Every structure is written in C-alpha cells, then in structure tokens.
Amino acid sequence: MRLVVQNDKSSPNGASVRRRRREPGHFRVRAAIAALAAAAIASGCTPVADPGAPGGSHGAGTARSTPSRQPLKAPPPAATPDPHAKKFRSGRSALAARAAAARRWGLARIPLTPPPPPATKPKITTREGFEVDGHEELGLPPVFTTIPTRQRVVFLTIDDGAEKDPAFLRMMSDLQVPYTAFLSNYLIKDDYGYFERMQRGGVALNNHTLHHPYLPGLSYRRQQYEICAMQDVIEERYGKRPLLFRPPFGNYNRNSLRAAKSCGVKYVPLWNEEVFVDRWDYREWDRKVRPGDIVLTHFRGRGDWKGTMPDMIRRFLNKVTAEGYAVARLEDYL
C-alpha cells in the first residue's frame, strides 16, 4: 500500500508564504492519514516516508523497513540420507553382534559369513565309485559327498535326533550358522516340538528312515516302507515332504535308491568329513577339508560323547574358520 501526501507550495518568487490557518477539517484529514498508515504497517505494506516528517523528502517517499517484521528465511534443505552410511552402520552392528556371540560361546574366532547362494545351481552328479547298476538309466537320485563349487564353504549336516539340547538351539541361533538335519522317527517322536523350533529357525528337516536300519539287509518293500513312512511323518509334523534322504550308516544298494526315488527323494547326500567332540574323521587320504565338503555330525551329548553338542560345534567352527571356510546352507546349492 502506498500513501500519497500532497506537498505545501512556495510562491513563484521563492519567498515562503505564510501557512494558511488550518481549517477545522484539516485535523480530521491528518488523523485519517495516520490511521491509514497504522493500518498499512499492521497489514505488512511498506509505508512511504511522510515529507513533512524529519528525514522525509518531497514527492514519493523512500521506503523504510518495519523493525517489528523481520524478513522470513526458508528453512535449510533436509539432509538426504546416505544409503551407504546406513548400510555401513548396519554391517558394523551385525559384525558386533556376531563378535559378541562368538565370545559368549567360547569360539576362537568370529565365524565367517557365507557368500550369497549361487544364481545358477551347480550340477550334482553321483560321485565316482558310489554308483549302483543302472544308476543313470533308471534316473536314480545322485549320491555325493561334496558340492562342486570354488567358494570356500562347507556344509554342516546333523543326523538322527537323539540329543535335544536347548543350548545347542540357542548357540546356532546366536551364531547364525546354517545346518541341515536328517531325522529318524524313533528318536524324535518323544519331542517333535524340539525340531519344530529348529525348523522355525530356518533349518531344513530331512529323511533318515523311521528306525535307522541297515538298509542293504532289507527287501525292496521293507526299505520303501522305512523311507516313505518317514516322508509321511515329516510332512504330517512339519508340513513339507523332504527332497533329501541319507541312508543310515551311509549304506545303501540299488533297491535303496529305487525306493527313495519312489518316495519323492531327489538327492542322497553323504559326507566327506565327520566331526565329534574330541576329533575329526576324514574320507580322503590327505585328511584335508576342501571347498564344498559336506560335514557329518550327530545329535549326541554326554551320554555318548566326552562333551555336549555346543562343545562339538565349537570344535567344528574353530577348525573351519581358522582354515578360511564359511558354513553355507546345503539346500541353497541344490
């Protein structure tokens, strides 16, 4: 809003003329002008200087700022979150948690993190010397002891289900170490819930027969019953029919693989090393762990071993970690 004020005039000869006596209405005009100026200030308009006031000028006045209204400043732009910094903090937090878990369970080193599962699964074939007559012609499940991979990973598998140690479940959950279980019904039926908790932690539950017999000593029909009935138990109790089967003691014949195939089995993984509380056993003559090796152990405790399952896991992890191996999930490579 602009206020326009009429200036007083001077005589043509430059002499000042005596101001006319102010008429009564003049005061009302000045009051109205003052009211308009106050309204302009209140409304945020910039007032124009009164030429009759000190510092005023003739004609259009010079704008003066209103001390009570400071110019508004835009807030500074919000900082854009750095996704790399967030990922770095998350990685450091995860490493700190794993380090704390390693200390809590008495490990010499923090277990290594496995690489992502391969986008293209390796081709699984039967190990030479482990075939049966007509293996390929009949399309029988492959029997193998290692996964063909160059990644420095090994696979932990645990058989039977006799020992049900809650500390073992806590340890594996804390350390985030994957493993695969092969179960026999006669050993797990007194506590199906223990293995249900295991399954909720991401562990795959697979077939190790109903009663853990020596399969080559049984007829085809009897072997089929041992394998297929265990498939039914796992499906009924845990909601999924297994694709993996491990014969008890690692012993099988042609009928074993035929029966396994008839029950929906796709793979028969054996092992290259076996770990106990107090030792390692090796299939290979040079007693070395290799990339892709499958490692066997059992659900056993002090009743069978010189220690507990956490003691066995400690021995297993200390060795493979020291040799630069991570523990991966077997099913991710099949």
Walk me through the structure.
The protein is of the alpha/beta class. It has eight helices and nine strands. Strands 2, 3, 4, 6, 7, 8 and 9 form a seven-stranded mixed β-sheet that branches. Strands 1-5 form a two-stranded parallel sheet. Strand 2 (153-160), helix 3 (166-175) and strand 3 form a beta-alpha-beta unit. Helix 6 (220-238) packs parallel to helix 7 (254-262). The longest helix has 22 residues, at 83-104.
Distinctive features:
334 residues, alpha/beta, 7-stranded mixed β-sheet, two-stranded parallel sheet, 9 strands, 10% strand, disordered N terminus
Structural class: alpha/beta
- Low-pLDDT windows of residues: 1-29, 31-69
Strand content: 5-15%
Summarize the amount of helix as a percent range. Answer: 25-40%
Largest pleated sheet: 7 strands, mixed
User: Helix and strand succession?
Assistant: HHEEHEHHEHHEEEEHE
Radius of gyration: 43 Å
Number of helices: 8
Q: Describe the global form.
A: globular
- What is the first-to-last residue Cα distance? 81 Å
**Quaternary structure classification:** single chain
**What number is the mean pLDDT?**
83
The number of strands is: 9
